[in-house]
Each structure stands twice: as C-alpha cells, then as structure tokens.
Structures
1.
Amino acid sequence: MAIVSLEKICKTYHLGSIDLHVLSQIDLTFKEGEYVAIMGPSGSGKSTMLNLLGCLDRPSSGRYFLGDRDVSILDDDELSQIRGQRIGFIFQSYNLIAQLNVIENIEVPMFYQGVTERPSYKRARELAETVGLGDRLDHIPSQLSGGQQQRVAIARALANDPLIILADEPTGNLDSESGGEILVLLDSLHQQGKTLIIVTHDTNVARRAHRIIHLLDGRVERIEINKKI
Amino acid sequence: MVWFRIKRTIKLGAKSLWMHRLRSTLTTLGIVFGVCSVIAMLAIGEGASQEAQNQIARLGSRNVIIKTVKPAEEQQSTADDSTMKTYGLTYEDAERFRATLSYEVIVPSRRINQQVWYRNRKVTVEVIGTIPWYPEIAPIEIMRGRFFGSIDLHYQHKVCIVDESVIDEIFIIDDPIGQDIKIKDNYYRVVGIVTAVGPIDTTGETANGIEPQAGPSRSGEMAGGIMGNVYIPLSAFKSSFGEISIQMTAGTRQMEKVELQEVTVKVPSLDMVLPTRDILEDMLASTHKKKDYQILVPLELLRQAARTKRIFSIVLGSIAAISLLVGGIGIMNIMLATVSERTREIGIRRALGARRRDIIIQFLSETVMLTLTGGVLGIALGSLIPYLVERFFYMPTVITGFSLILAFGISGAIGVAFGIYPAYRAAWLDPIESLRHE
C-alpha cells in the first residue's frame, strides 16, 4: 500500500528573469514499511526533495499524497499539523533544543499535538529507554555526545508515531562507531515496521535500504533495488 | 490540558530568560522605573486628595471660616511699643453677618491655650469659648451629657465640655461628668463629653495651602503639647480671660485687643458657599480699614488640592510614560535580538509541528514574563518611594490596591504591545531557512 505518492512534482525557483527548475516531473511512490534512500550529488535536488517530503515546502505543481491527504494544497497551519502528526525528522546536526533536557526535547512534538502532561512524559520516557538513554533523562544536549544526541533526536522523531521518518544525513556528523550504532537503531525501526526515507550521499548508509533513488539535475536518474535484503 | 500548556510555556520562557539573566535584568529596568513612577504618582495623588478630603471633612464643606489675623503693618511697627493694638473680628461683625445672612448658622469663637487642673493633675488644652451651636460646624459628637445651652451662655455659667483625650489625661478613673476642673482662676463643671478632634495635618506646610491651625477644630496632640479641647460658653470665656492679651517680646510690651478669633458661617447648601464668601468679603472690606481677617473656604481648598494633584499627575505621569515607552522599546530590541539568536530553535519547532501561533505565543509570553517581572520589581521599589516622600517631604501618600493592579496591568500591556512585533517576526520566519541558520 502506497503511503507516500508524488505525482508530477515540480519545484521552480524564480531568480530574477531565470527560472530554476530544481525538481521536474517527479513521480514516486513509497510503500508502508519501506526503507528508501535518496542519493545524488549536490545540486541534484536532494534537499528540495527532502523539504517537500517533510512538508516544509510546497511544490510549484504536481500533487503530493501523504497517507490519505493531498498535502500539496494545505495552508501553513495545516502543514504544521501534518509535520507534527505524520513526519518524524532526523537531522544531520541533531537539532535538539539547547535549553531543554532529554525528556523535554522528546516531548516537544507531543506538546504541539496537545498531548497532556502524564501521557507525554510516559511516552518520552519509554522512547528514551528504547534508544538507550534511560539513565540520562535530565541531561541537556551539551552534556551528551553526538551519538547520544542523535538518539534523542530519533526518539523525538518517533514521539507522535509518524507515518514516515525522514532522515537527512543522520550519520554525517558522527564518527564511524556511533554512526554505525545509529544505523543499527534505524534498522531496528524498520524492522518494527516504520517507513524510513534517508537522504544521504554515503553509499554505506544507502546500502541498507530496499530501494535507492538516484537524483540528478532534478530528475530521477535511476532506481536501484537492493536485492540483498 | 490548557493548564499544562500554560505551565510548559511559562517554564520554557523562564528557562530562556534565565539563560540570559543579566540581559533580562537590564532589559526590565526601564519597566521597573516606569512602574515605580506609576505607583509613586498614584500614591502621591491619592494622598493629596485624601488629605484634602479629610481636611474638608474637618473644616466642613459648607463652612465659610473668617479668621482674625494680625494685620501686616502692625507686625512691623516697633516705635510705639506700649500702645494697645485693636484688631480682628468683633461681636459687631458677627451681628452684622447674622443680620445679613439670615439663614445660616453663625458661630463665633475664641480660643486660648491654657493649663487646666483636675485635683492635682494638669493638662494643657485649647480652651474654646463659643456658643451652643458650635457642634453644628465642627466635626465633634456628643458622647455623654450635653453641650452647653443658651441659658449657660446668657448667665455665664461656669460649665465646660471636655473631649475624650482630655479625659484620658486627667480623669483616670473618676467619672468626669459633674466634676469641677480649674481653668485659669475659675472652676468649671463638666457637663458633657465630646469626641476628640484627631490631629489635622501633622505635617505643617501642606500642598494645598491650609495652614495647620486653620479652622475651628484645631487638633489635640499637635503643637505645644496640647492634649485636647475644652469648650466653655463664650460669655464665660470673655469674663474669665478678657479681650486683652499682653505679649512680651525682647523687652517690648505689647497689648492686643481681640474680640473674636474666628467666626464660622455654615450655609445650607454647597452652591451657596462661594456667594456667601463674596458677601462676607464685601462686608468686611467696607467695615475693616485694615486687612485683619482672612476668609477660608474649605470647598475651595478641595479645588486647590485637585489642581495640585493634577500637576503632580502630569509630571509623574509623563515620567512614567516616557520610561515605560523607553523600557518597552528596549524590550522590543532585546526580543528581536533573541529571535534572531534563536532562529534555529524556531525552525526546529516549526519542523516538529509548531504552528505560527504557537511561536507567537512562545515569544509573546516570554516578553510578557519579562515585563511582568519588571512590573513586580517596580511595584516593590515603587512602594518604597511614597514612604520616602512621606518621610522626607512630609507629603501624605496612599498606596491603593487599585494602583498596584493598574501598575501590574500596565507592565503586562507593555509586554504585549512591544512583544507582538518580535513574536510575529519569529513566526513568519521560513522554516527551511531557519533550520539552515547557524
């Protein structure tokens, strides 16, 4: 069952008199529980793709269905709502909120969905334990290592049980050891049935996915199916 | 649910503000001083108006008070040192008032500071010689017994009425009614007890120009150890003290003859106060060659007090407005800096599902928390100012609950007014740009 489908997605920026076609005519579908990697050199439209998939941006034309909803026509408030409910973000630079501790960081997406105090705390605690940070609940990000911070970010991405998890170079800032741990964690999420979309230029990361979508100049260059898995 | 959101928002705001304690503190100073001025302004204004009202209540708003004053030229004359000076209000004046103003209560009085004795105890009081209608123009009430009547006045009966504070001084356990007290050379029988006239205006000079000893109700504990008032019939006063007083100053001796110190006219309604004052003014001007009288209109003092209060309010109000404005601009400035510092945080929150209005609420509540903290500090500090004003400038002040609430409300409103723009700036940042922000 297709959980994400992109139909003739275009994204065009107008720079003065020049029209810059960052994405053109993208047609893609992702199934539920799929593990997809998006690769491509810089300037290939990876970031724009990620922003569109993450509902941070709207396509210039085309339609984007996330679950049962066409999100390409939503307004800002509705998009915020969708981001909070259906998308879990994992960023390269973790993007935790500096003044909040582990629990509070994990609670942020739940706060914006109106989850009340007790269930929110309970869920955040469970998630922190799942990612192996049960003993660091009141640490603030600056007291944690990069790998630990990224694990907090993963826990946070899971908070509202989203439809898709979008990861943008999740191991980009990490050494190979903690990067490996993060990839194992992502694998385990996939095994639990989560839909994962990872944007990366690291083939070692991409290799773990079912499908690898190669972007070039705003188009899908080729789709590689990983037969080993 | 709502409560949890509020709690979270406050906690987050407090954390963020605490991260920049010094900056937050300095930022609130403008609000602190502004709120201080608001509190001080209202306290001084309220003090002035309450004092004026108290004095009016004592002096009687429907009263016109004519007082004897020593004419100016005689105060300077030193050449004829033993001649008799005759000045001031006379019985004839009082009669003339009575004949012209047929409807009013007209009460002449004389007063002198005197020691009175009961057995072996003495107390210095103000002895007031007056007529039976005195209680109508003064803020005294008969507690026990009676005031003296027309017959006492006519036959110069040696009766007196004492007030509570005198009783406390000399009749410790004895029942004062029926006792005799000695005033100068005569014994007077106590026939009634009246309420004490509390101290008026213990501060001497006042903002609204009422002299401390004005009015028929000169108070007890104030000057010269005077503990209270004793009232006797005017006729008895006259026979007992005469009308001539001798003043010895630096080797010169001066005799003065004063018939009445004061005549109080009570008119039936407030709108007759000023016309009556004019009539009396004309009458006195035509009969007195020297300006040896002064007309006091308590109602007018009230208006003067209102004018003074208005001037104070304008001055302090401008200070308050300017410092609140400057404080508000300072806060806006800091909040704009905060927003650009925390652009990334805003981007993260937007990505995690925060709507624009959530961001607005976050930054607006942070600003309001900042200004409300300033407001509380300002209220604390501002409550000290009236105390200092009272202590060093002898001006009465009153801090009302309303002024505290108002000051608090103003600081909150400043937070909203100057926080809204930075909050909107934050909310309208592009989430993609913000996430990329370093």
Note: Chain A touches chain B at residues 51, 54, 56-57, 76-77, 80-81, 83-85, 89, 91, 95-100, 108-109, 111-114, 116-117, 156, 160 (CB under 8 Å).
2.
Amino acid sequence: MDLAITSLGVVSPFGVGRASWESALADPQGAMAAAFRSPSEVLDAEKLPGARTAEAWGFDPNEHLGKKGHRTFDRLTKFLIAAAKHALIEAGVKDADGAYVGDLGPERIGICSATAYGSLDAITELNLVAELEDPRFINPSRFPNTVINAAAGYVSIWEDLRAPNTTVVDGNCGALDAVLVAVTHLRQGRADAFLVGGGEVVSEPLYRALARLGVVARADGTGVTMGEGAAYLFVEPRAAAEARGATILASLRGYGTAFEPPPSEALLVHASADAVERASREALAEAGLEPSDVDVVAAATGGIEPIDAAELAGLRAVFGDDACIATPKALHGETFGAAGAFGLASGLAWIGGAPVAPCVQGSAPAAVRTVLVSSVGYYGNASAVLLRA
Amino acid sequence: MGRVFVTGIGVVSPLGLGVDTFGSALLEGREATAPVTGFDASGLDRDRACEVTDFRPREHLTAAEARRTGRCSAMAVAAARMAVEQSGLGDAIGGPRTAVILGTTMGEANVLGQLEARWIHEGEDSVPPAALPRYGSTLLPIHVARAVGARGIVQTLPAACAAGNYAIGYAADLIRSGRCDRAISGAAEVIEKLQYAGFARLGAIAPEHCQPFDKERRGLIVGEGAGVLLLESEESVVRRGATPLAEVGALGLACDAHHITRPHPEGAGSLVAVRAALAGSGLAAADVDYVNAHGTGTDANDKVEAMVMREVFGTQQPALTSIKSMIGHCMGAASAIEAVSCVLTLRDGVIPPTINHQELDPDCAGVDLVANEARRAPVKTLLNNSLAFGGYDAVLCLSQPEVLAAEAFA
C-alpha cells in the first residue's frame, strides 16, 4: 500500500480547515483549553448540568455551505460537507470558488466515511415524537437522517461525487477501517481518489448512555470527554498524485486489523491486547517496517480504564516500554467512529512539526517521519494504520 | 488462483428458515405479506409487512448468545451457522484469516427502540446500564465472529438497501487481495416501528401487495431477515477438495449524487454500476442469463430499473424477476437474501417468479419478466441488482463455478 494523502479537510473544536488544526496542535496546552469547555452549545444545560465536552465551538454552517439548501441537514451532515469541501479545494481538484478543475473529476472521486453513532440524534428525535405523540406525526423530512449512511450520501450530492460512497460502521475503528475500504475500491479501479475519514457529533442520547454507564468525563479529568467534528483525507495512488503535481502531505503505507472475543461468554464489552498487537504487527508488515521505525504511536486512549489498559499492553508488546506513545484525544476529545481520522490528522500535524503531546510513555521525538495510529473498539476489534512522511 | 467461491449459504426469511424451505417457497410463488404483528401500526394508514414469524433465537443460538444479541444479530448468527454447516468447514471456519463483513440499514434498531421507549416512558433510571452496549450497528459482525470463531476483519457496511451486495462483493475483493482466505458475508435487518412509520410517511408502502413492474404497482412492502454467503478463496476450496455452489464475480458500484431517497431519473449511476460489474467480471451484456431485479414496486425504482435494462441489454433481454413480490423489501438484508436466491437459481436452473403480476407497466416495457410462474432455464451467469438510499448503486455478478474467465481476476 502506498497511497498519497494530498489534503486534510477538518472540522474540530479548533475550527474548520487544516490551518486551524495545525495551529492548535502547535500549542497543546492551549489546544486543550480551547477544546474542553462548559457549558455545551449542543446539550441542554438544564437537563444535563455540568456537561463538559469538546465541541466544534461556534461552528456556523452558513460560512461553509452558504445560506441555502441545508436546512434539513443534521449537524453531522454539515460537518462532513464542510470537511469534504476543504479537502477537495486543498487537494487542488476544486478551485476556491468550488468549481472542479483539472483531470480528476467528481465522477472518479468517492467517499469512505465512518461514524459510530451518526444517526442516533435523528432516531431519538423521531422516537420522542413516536412515543409521546404518535408515529404518524414524525416529520418525513427528518427521516433520512435516521439512516446512518445518509450523511455521507448528502456529501456526494452536495459535491457531485459519483464514484462509490461507502459508510463504515465499526465502532471506534470505523475511520481506520475506511482506509481498507478505500484501498480495496482503488485496487478494483472503482475510483481514482477517495475522501477517507469520518465524523461524529456530540449527542444527548449518547451522553446519557455514557453517563448511565459511569464512564462520562468526571471533574477529576478521568472518563470519556465527548468530542465531535469531521476529518477527511484526500487519498490517491502516489503515482497519480505525483503525475498531477499535487502536494503530498504523507502517505498511508499499511493497515492491520484483528478481532478477539472476550474471555467469557457472559461478556460483551471488552478490549483485547492481543487484537491490538496483531493489528499493529499487520500494519507494520504491510509497510515493510520494523517497530523501531515508528517515531510515535497515536494511541486510542479515550478515558475508559480497562479499554485503555488493554490497548497499552498490546502496543507495548509490539513497540516496547520506551517507544513514544501519545494520546491525542487528550487534546480534542473522543470522537468514536471518526477517531481514527483525527488520529491520522494528528499524525499529519506531527510530521509537519507540531510537538507530540501528551505522551503516556517515552519522550517526544525531535522529528516525526512515521506514525502508527491505533483504534480500539468496545467489543474486541482493533485496527491500525501506518502513516509515513 | 484469483477465483472466489460460495461454499455455503444460509437464510432467515419471511418465507421461512433455511435454504430448502426458502427456495421451494419462492418457486411455488408464495407470498409472505400479512398484517404486521410486531407493533401497533394503526394510524399509519398502512399495516402490511413481510415479517419473519418463525424465528426462535434459542433454536439457533446458545443461551449466552441469545442474552447478548438483539433480533437482528440473532438472525445474522443463525444464517451464518447454516452457511458454515453447508460448507462442511466445521471448526476450520475460525481463526485470523476469516473475515466477517455484514451489511444492514439500521442494525439493532429494535434494541435501540426498546431502550429509548423505556427511557422516554419510565425515566433514565429505569434503563439497566448492562442493556446499553447491546445497541450498536457494529455488533452484527462481532456477534457472528464470536459464534463461528472468526478473528480477522470484522466490518459493518451500512449501505442501506444495497448493503448485502456491498458486503458480499467487498468480502470477495478482500479475499482476492489476499487479506483473508474466507469470509462470512451478507446482511441482516429487522422491521421496527419507527422505520416502518418513516416509510409510511414517505408514501412508499403499498396498501396490499408488492407488484414490481406492474402498471398498478403502489409501492413496497417492508420485509426483514438475514442472508449469508460463505466465501472462500480458490486455494482454500481446492486444498480441501470442496464443491463450490457458485462463484462471485465483480461488484459494480456507483453513486447517483442526485437525491437522498430517489434514484437518478435516467439511472445514471445504475448504468455505471451494471457496466462495471460486467466489465469487472470479463462479461459482455449478452452473457447474462438472468437479472435479479431490485424491483421494489415503487413507481420511480421500477421505471428506472427497466430503463437501465433496456439500455444495457437492448433486444437481448435476460430473464428478470423481483422476489420482493413474495418476501417484501428486506431493506439492508434484501440484496443478501436475494443473493441466496440467486445461488439457488445457479445451482438448480429455476428462476423464481415475480408474483402479483397482471399487466406490465408501459414505462417498464421491453423487459423479460418472469411473471407469476417460476421458469426452468439454465442460468450460468447473473446479476443481482440493488439501488439504495443515499444514491447508492450496487450490482453483484454471480455465476456457476468456473464459468467466468480466469483472467478477469488474475
């Protein structure tokens, strides 16, 4: 695998566009302060007092989508469109006015987009109507948002992208698994380039579920801080990127994934160190690299102690006890299905010179060329992608 | 050694469980449509569906499995077990070189529906925390992987009504690219109140019957179930001396980028997808014996699909059927359950009928519809067509074993 990344479109607590992302990551302490805030702009402060989140603060869809045509879109759809638009322009396939330019046209560009809970808000909204009033009163214009591939479908419509559109739902591993989907589609010649990544939104039902499970962010800084946003990498075969003179930010060189069942039939939620280890080794093998070639590992550490501990054990089995393992979610929150895309975005920023922080072990390297991004699901799956300058 | 074979199939359908029951009901032209029993549909002005009425999880799952799965995953597990049993792989199905790739639209929608109903009516404190992780669209392949011992790639592709084709075609791609040796592929879906109400509010549900391509068609009938194809690399099949049921050709994909629920009026994406499936499988249009239509029975779908059939196949039309006339539109599971039917047609040489047919809609003229009675005809090569929410177009080529040119997959 040698796929060039020729742009990054991102919506995050730090703003919209790669520049906002990179300037925030250049100052990790400042980034943390900017991202993690209260009160929420999304959750109802009366119903959920004290909720602390990492939201796309002040996100204004009109600024990125124009004033018309997106009234019925949900928050996720708007994030994805804004990220896609920035990625397409920065990759040089669209000009600043939004017109396609050059030989790489929208009929040959597809989308591989991950989310874990992207339809939850819409389903809950309609369930409230159905349960408290009557199913016949649900608003049909809101119904499409209950279907989890709708958000990415709207991106294809908005940007006229006619190569395959694929939504991936693999819990926290979705955005890294979207890399495998893109690689596979490219190999079959179904497209010449893909927007690869995903999005997630801060949502009341998800917040309530995490709170009920006792894992939502606590005052002492432990627990899961719900983040949100969207990130798309524009990905194409290296030779094609070079031929069209695109700027190559880095390349995707290896992918690995594994599943291990829990030790007991009675368990459902669990993470497996063995799965993490196998996924990392597979990604390294595909890239033809050794663990010592990796400058930093972007761990999935998200604030659920047993899950984080299993991941760390798996990563240590591969990379040892001295390698630099960073926890980028400490800066931007847990974005679930989109987390792998944010991990890759962090890797790009580090390769570009941003300081690696915070680290749970090892010390930040002076320069970063190779990053392994790890994702860990809540049900035993784990995935890894190798990013190289 | 680039071929990918189907060595096992399993199905949980509105016409019964298991491929024998399902296959014979299809050839008899039986219809599963009946008043919906899973929830109160009064007030929606529509009340018919094709429900799976004879699925009892404990006949297929262990007690522990039945406790941790919702209905959607349970049906997927049952269908996967049937496929594994037919393949004769036994315990050899497991391990890190086995992938589980499943599609769906809403996954464990009824688990979520029940959780939310309890939260809404009885308050948050009444919801048991242990019940919460039982929701998640990602759970389908996880439950199936646990049931069969698979430890490789586990993925959910929620490609709405094209999800089965997406999952099966992509799983075959993964085998061809050497990322796994075997894959459990397919899709599952349950009928759930909210989504039924949504279809009803969109005006998509027929009052009585699904009548694909008929002049009097009034819409779709919602169905449910699970369909699974067990796929194996050529090397694996040869090594263990297995007899394949069918071969998987290419998956043709495109996106209309036109409308979130309606197909492109000229079938732009669908044409690209059909042609990609043919080209990727090394086939000309004239090589296709049969097309399993998406055939939902809605005005827009059937019109566009017939247009694409005329455009691609001209005057040499392959046989065309929509078994949705019998089992309804099983949404995410539709193209997977229909792929099971396709494998049976390749094996047995009988094409199931499109029932409830009275008069071909002039807008659908030019197709060779297998109307009302099954048709005996040797089928070497077929296309399984699907169009979906989101503007998705997905066409999967299936054939008898070793009919496709080996070079197509070299």
Note: The first strand of chain B starts at residue 4 and ends at 13.
